[in-house]
């Protein structure tokens, strides 16, 4: 079986390049098979080899972490890129869009090779997960599901949104999570109509909806789960909106399978909510891939041509946001299987009234 670096090298001919500079920490981690801290340097892949360019501060650590990748130890990272390219006879270098303008300008001025900006080359390799990656994502989604259910046993009026987020994050860390993949969103009452409302010092109140959107790392891979719950009866209008979102999400999830596009999945949920009068209140995309990063391909939204493939893990997260009243989002993590899909998250999807 080809290694991840070899899979990247196999793309050189179709892309008309003979080398590739990997600057994204997540792409570096994916290709070498271990975490390397942001700022450690560059992974340079030529048709002949792969080397990691770094400095002496990280030499001992990286020799142990990625023993299969030769290190180039230097304080002049970009000059080392030039030296390796010349030694290997490279003529066309592909670069990622994470490079800074200053880095690009140096390369453009000093390299003898041509430079070709290429977006999403290594990112697209990451979309289809292998068995070890899927096992890590399963652990992350299972633990996050358990954490949310534990949170619902203590959630009550009077807690602040910030206290809710802190409680969940502490529980997750105590049970094996290594960190969050984004700041935990807790938005209550009228603030639940803010799709990315950050946790604040607002106190939860009876009769309000509370939206909690969280992602946690386990073994380097993240979950991404959202639930909206109610503290007492939220009223008929918000309950009807919740039922519409739940039904829309169920319809989208039922259609997940290899071959369907992101646009097609989005249209299922958007058309459903539009028919029920909530079309203009669904103001974001339907989902995205997850893995080493919280947002990866494939993209699921209006106009996205991305085709679902087996062993991708995606989110399905329709929402309805009614300004001044409240909002609802339900998000699950879905494994695309060879003949359909599997829902990895296990938190109940019906409206939970606490």
From TrEMBL:
<dbReference type="InterPro" id="IPR029149">
    <property type="entry name" value="Creatin/AminoP/Spt16_N"/>
</dbReference>
<feature type="domain" description="Peptidase M24">
    <location>
        <begin position="136"/>
        <end position="337"/>
    </location>
</feature>
<dbReference type="InterPro" id="IPR001131">
    <property type="entry name" value="Peptidase_M24B_aminopep-P_CS"/>
</dbReference>
<keyword id="KW-0479">Metal-binding</keyword>
<feature type="domain" description="Creatinase N-terminal">
    <location>
        <begin position="4"/>
        <end position="128"/>
    </location>
</feature>
<dbReference type="InterPro" id="IPR000994">
    <property type="entry name" value="Pept_M24"/>
</dbReference>
<dbReference type="InterPro" id="IPR050659">
    <property type="entry name" value="Peptidase_M24B"/>
</dbReference>
<comment type="similarity">
    <text>Belongs to the peptidase M24B family.</text>
</comment>
<keyword id="KW-0378">Hydrolase</keyword>
<protein>
    <submittedName>
        <fullName>Xaa-Pro aminopeptidase</fullName>
    </submittedName>
</protein>
<dbReference type="Pfam" id="PF00557">
    <property type="entry name" value="Peptidase_M24"/>
</dbReference>
<dbReference type="GO" id="GO:0004177">
    <property type="term" value="F:aminopeptidase activity"/>
</dbReference>
<dbReference type="GO" id="GO:0046872">
    <property type="term" value="F:metal ion binding"/>
</dbReference>
<dbReference type="Pfam" id="PF01321">
    <property type="entry name" value="Creatinase_N"/>
</dbReference>
<dbReference type="InterPro" id="IPR000587">
    <property type="entry name" value="Creatinase_N"/>
</dbReference>
<dbReference type="InterPro" id="IPR036005">
    <property type="entry name" value="Creatinase/aminopeptidase-like"/>
</dbReference>
<keyword id="KW-0645">Protease</keyword>
<keyword id="KW-0031">Aminopeptidase</keyword>
């Amino acid at each position: 079986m080809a290694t991840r670096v070899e899979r990247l090298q196999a793309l050189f001919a179709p892309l008309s390049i003979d080398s590739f500079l990997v600057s994204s920490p997540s792409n570096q981690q994916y290709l070498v098979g271990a975490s390397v801290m942001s700022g450690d340097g560059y992974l340079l892949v030529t048709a002949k080899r792969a080397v990691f360019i770094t400095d002496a501060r990280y030499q001992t650590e990286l020799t142990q972490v990625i023993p299969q990748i030769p290190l180039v130890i230097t304080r002049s990272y970009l000059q080392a890129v030039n030296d390796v390219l010349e030694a290997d006879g490279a003529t066309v270098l592909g670069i990622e869009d994470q490079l800074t303008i200053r880095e690009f300008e140096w390369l453009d001025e000093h390299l003898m090779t041509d430079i070709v900006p290429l977006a999403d080359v290594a990112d697209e390799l990451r979309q289809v997960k292998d068995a070890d990656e899927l096992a890590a994502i399963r652990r992350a989604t299972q633990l996050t599901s358990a954490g949310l259910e534990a949170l619902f046993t203590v959630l009550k009026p009077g807690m602040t949104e910030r206290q809710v987020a802190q409680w969940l994050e502490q529980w997750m860390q105590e049970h094996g999570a290594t960190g969050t993949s984004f700041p935990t969103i807790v938005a209550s009452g009228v603030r639940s109509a803010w799709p990315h409302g950050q946790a604040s010092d607002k106190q939860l109140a009876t009769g309000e909806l509370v939206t909690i959107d969280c992602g946690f790392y386990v073994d380097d891979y993240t979950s991404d789960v959202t639930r909206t719950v109610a503290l007492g009866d939220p009223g008929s209008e918000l309950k009807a909106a919740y039922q519409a979102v739940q039904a829309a999400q169920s319809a989208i999830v039922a259609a997940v399978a290899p071959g369907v596009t992101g646009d097609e999945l989005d249209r299922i949920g958007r058309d459903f909510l539009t028919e029920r009068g909530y079309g203009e209140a669904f103001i974001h995309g339907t989902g995205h891939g997850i893995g080493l990063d919280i947002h990866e391909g494939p993209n699921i939204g209006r106009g996205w041509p991305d085709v679902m493939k087996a062993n991708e893990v995606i989110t399905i997260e329709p929402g309805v946001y009614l300004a001044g009243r409240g909002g609802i989002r339900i998000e699950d993590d879905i494994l695309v299987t060879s003949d359909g899909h599997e829902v990895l998250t296990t938190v109940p999807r019906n409206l939970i009234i606490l």
